[in-house]
Amino acid sequence: MKLTPNRNATALITSMVMSWALVGGALPPNQPIHLKRDVVVTGSNVMLSDIFAGIDAKTDTIVAAAPTPGKQMNIGSRDLRQIATANELSWRPTSRHALVKVMRESRSIPMKLVRSAIEQAITLDLPGEDVEIEITNRRLRLAIASGHPPTVKVHDLTYDERTHHFTCQISAPADNPAAVRHSVTGRVYEMVKMPVARTHIRPGQTVRKSDITWRRVRASQATYNTISSFDELVNHTARRPLIAGRLLRRTDVQPQQLVIKGDFVTLHFRNAQMSLTTRGIALESGARDDMVRIRNTRSKKVIEGKVISPNAAVLQLPMLAHLN
């Protein structure tokens, strides 16, 4: 009797064969090899399986050294053919433009870490100095292989105190003696701290100590007219808007006016023998220790007094006769 295969059974057997092949059965020897296009490698070598898909793990091998972190290596048609031939792969380029781009997985080192490392190296030669550097080769980019710490080492530093320029070599990561060195050039700036407004201050507002903070700036930004101490700001009055964080000029503020023109002023005179007090009208405004003209309200005579506190002045000895 002739047996007719059951269609469902045939489909089940075919499915089992395919599943077995996919997990390592009899199909791998005939598995097609495909070229990859854009490759990212994590190690220091480029493997055969990085370039070609379908490579069995048992036959995988090193074909080239990986590029420097952050750099790209191109493998062209001719090299691909040689690699395939040397490893007995059933693959040949279909075009002379066949190309595989290989990148090394990497991470960038922030330039602020580079600047910080160079600044620390420079301050070893300039103890007590606060400096900031500016790197002039702006296209400098540092990349390290993933998994390495983002550290920088400075080599062969030279600094010209006359021109304030420096040159050095840097490498990353710092603990890797095989790391590639890069040349760095730049300029060194001396830094100073200057008092600035913590928040915006309106014209006419008296500046308090709590309104002031310190800002680190390049010494070259300060001029003879730049305010450099608390005493030049505290208890002074803003003549114009003071912008938070901006360097201030001496012309931006004025001493607080303790006596205002047109206001009544108490006049004092004291010595070992007597103490006299009278009132007058200020003919001009003045800050502490300013000499202002005051009209005696009784005698109508104009005298000069030294401002000592709000609406108060002390009379100078030769002017005592004008009290009456």
Describe the protein.
- With 324 residues, the protein is mainly beta.
- The chain has three domains: 32-104, no CATH class; 106-254, Type Iii Antifreeze Protein Isoform Hplc 12 (Alpha-Beta Complex), CATH 3.90.1210; 258-323, SH3 type barrels (Roll), CATH 2.30.30.
- It is built from four helices and 23 strands.
- The longest helix is centred in the first third of the chain and has 16 residues, at 7-22.
Give descriptors for this structure:
324 residues, 3 domains, 37% strand, 5-stranded antiparallel beta sheet, mainly beta, 5-stranded mixed barrel, SH3 type barrels
CATH domain class of the largest domain: Alpha Beta
Second rung of CATH, namely the architecture of the largest domain: Alpha-Beta Complex
Structural class: mainly beta
Alpha-carbon Rg, integer: 41 Å
Percent strand equals 35-45%
What's the total count of β strands? 23
Order of helical and strand elements: HEEEHEEEHEEHEEEEEEEEEEEEEEE
- pLDDT < 50 runs, ≥5 residues: 1-29
